Amino acid sequence: MEGLLRWLAGGADAADSKAGSAGADACRQLAEWSTRSARATELYAAHHKRAAALWNSVFARSAGRPAEVVARPAAGDRRFAAAEWREDAYYDFLKQSYLLNAQFITELVEAAEIAPRAKGRLRFFARQLIDAASPANFAATNPEVLRLARESNGETITRGAQNLFLDFGRGRIATTDEEAFGVGRNLAITPGAVIHENELVQVIQYAPAGATVRRRPLVVIPPCINKFYVLDLTPENSFVRHAVAQGNTVFMVSWRNPTAELGHLSWDDYVRDGVIEALAAARCVTQADRVNALGFCVGGTLLACALAVLAARGEDWVESLTLLATLLDFADAGEIGLLVDEASVAAKEAEIGRGGIMQGRNLAFVFSMLRANDLVWSYVVNNYLKGRSPEAFDILYWNADSTDLPGPWYCWYVRNMYLENRLREPGALTVCGEPVDLGRLRMPAYVLATREDHIVPWTSSYAATRLLAGRKRFVLGASGHIAGVVNPASKNRRSYWTSEFLTDSPAAWFAGAREVQGSWWRDWDAWLAGFAGGEAPAPKRFGGGRYRRIEDAPGRYVQHRVV
Backbone phi, then psi, for 263, in 5-degree steps? Predict the structure, then answer.
């Protein structure tokens, strides 16, 4: 057991550059607990008993007798799908030994009587090490990899080495066929034009789909941590195209991918020059009394801050608010929150807090490690060990299109949201010279969360219903942070949960909610129609007032790709 705990602690030490020394401290707490805990001793004994049963099954199998299966992969675990993992005695033993050890580590972490935050860190580090140690991840212990190498006379090894060399040049693991896509070629091709730009954003106005449009436009604030075209992927997966088809005049913020000369930009700059300028442009161009506004992920957090600034100034610009997978209360920010502590934030503030760039590829790596088996190890095996090329997938192409962030923006966000959770406290934050009070946001709000979101836990997204003052509709979509949001109505996949009644408890809400088959997009369409403000003739040109067509969508800013 002591060796195992040292193994865990070593993994935490290796991750200190990302998560601070608190991860190693959590592992040391586990080690101390295990030396004085009767429960740890029981788990250790149970593990030895299962290991003995596995050896007995090996002997039974070698003698031609029926052998007990001691450990089975979880449902949906594709790592051990090849027949050799079941039919070959050696690989079956290797697989089951690994699964037993993984079970023991997991049980030990869950049983540990340590602080909840420390236990959360332990879960993360333990899962990383368990996932990395899978025998499926190594050529010498993966029977499918060895078989493919024999059958191809070593060609898969050659192709795998070539793939590895190419990915070294990219600085990341390829997760999709990157030659299959291009921004402006088959991604982000909904017709439109850039009608406003400054050093931080371009604002895109999309062309109408019919002869009439809703009087109140829809202004979309995507996450600045990623490119906007997650909402305008291939035409069949494009949320923007769908929204336009419903009669909305859609305006989209395209955040600039900041280079060193923009490394001084702050949260206030993003709120003022990004969100508020986009809202002002949409109102001016359409001459609408108010607009409907939508924010996705951190775009929703920025939007909420901007609306609080406008409310403090007595401005009533927004008729309805839609928040997609957004955190306003960071009390439980999931595993990302567990990796943030005072030491790590202070170190970043000293490094880039006054100016500099937070590299997007580093953030992308952290997000990938939250689902390492799906987003890291499966591609290591496929690309490098099996010598295959990944399939074409528009979401994964977008996911690899990283966006950098200005250091001051990043440090302010992490400290005030993840570390100190000040947005939920009325007046605790000052943005653009105004006190931020989310309780002053009285417009109706549609709040969407996704049930398997590993970045924004749905129960935390639900907290927005307690912070916003207007009428709320909360909807829970199936799947995760991206696939749960990008769920085209035309494909009628997955499902969502809804209820007309909000409760103080997310669990109580879910117990009373009903599941509806299909996409949440249709539910949102019906809700948004109530705030259309009537119809008007579709505009015949882009822009209006002081805003003029600058260039065709998707514009220049989104084309800048981090190398």
Answer: -70, 0
Distances (CA, A) of 64 to 67, 78, 94, 418: 9, 28, 19, 58
Q: pTM for this one?
A: 0.92
CA distance 355 to 562: 19
Q: What angle do CA 335, 18, 339 make, to 5 degrees?
A: 25
- Rounded distance, CA 418 to CA 396, Å? 26
Question: Three-state DSSP class for 199?
Answer: coil
How far apart CA 290 and CA 534 sit, in angstroms, is 12
Contact 418, 337 (CB under 8 A): yes
What is the C-alpha separation between 469 and 465, in angstroms, rounded?
A: 8
C-beta of residue 362 within 8 angstroms of C-beta of residue 336: no
| pLDDT per residue of the chain (563 residues) written in tens, 0 to 9 | 444 444 444 444 444 444 445 567 777 788 888 888 899 899 999 999 999 999 999 999 988 888 899 999 999 899 999 999 999 999 999 999 999 999 999 999 999 988 888 888 889 999 999 999 999 999 999 999 999 999 999 999 999 999 999 999 888 899 999 899 999 999 999 999 999 999 999 999 999 999 999 999 999 999 999 999 999 999 999 999 999 999 999 999 999 999 999 999 999 999 999 999 999 999 999 999 999 999 999 999 999 999 999 999 999 999 999 999 999 999 999 989 988 999 999 999 999 999 999 999 888 888 898 899 999 999 999 999 999 999 999 999 999 998 999 999 999 999 999 999 999 999 999 999 999 999 999 999 999 999 999 999 999 999 999 999 999 999 999 999 999 999 999 888 899 999 999 999 999 999 999 999 999 999 999 999 999 999 999 999 999 999 999 999 999 999 998 76
Catalytic residues: 297
For the record, the structure tokens of 3 come out as 């060796």
Whether the CB-CB separation of 403 and 562 falls below 8 Å is answered with: yes
SS3 266: coil
The CA distance from 373 to 319, in Å, is 42
Residue 282 phi, psi dihedral angles, 5° rounding: -65, -40
- Whether residue 99 contacts residue 74, with contact meaning beta carbons closer than 8 Å, is answered with no
Per the CB < 8 A criterion, the answer to whether 232 and 188 are in contact is yes
